[in-house]
Amino acid sequence: MDITTDGPTLVLHGDFDVRSTFLVRNAIYEQFEGHERDVVLDMADVDTIDLTALRVLAVATLRAAQSGHHLTLRNCRPAVRRMIHLARFAHSVEVERAAATA
């Protein structure tokens, strides 16, 4: 898992699983501590996600709300969206809606 930062956006590259949760969690919390703004996770380059990673995102979302911040997932691929719904995390994390195309 590689993470690049673009302002308040963390761009994730690779598989988001138990091996990368520590890295992603720390990057999210550093954004919350270092900035008075919301954080966006760009998931366009995330191929797979597991239950452990979803739990990290759910806890980070809750922690963000408790501290007056906001965490949003952007550009989730269909496999990631499917896992969010299958694991019943749709109400625990915020997934940005894709813009409608004409």
Automatic annotation (TrEMBL):
Matching SUPFAM superfamilies: SpoIIaa-like (SSF52091)
Residues covered by the STAS domain: 1-102
Top-level taxon of origin: Bacteria
Name under which the protein is recorded: STAS domain-containing protein
Species of provenance: Nocardioides piscis
Phylogenetic placement of the source organism: Bacteria, Bacillati, Actinomycetota, Actinomycetes, Propionibacteriales
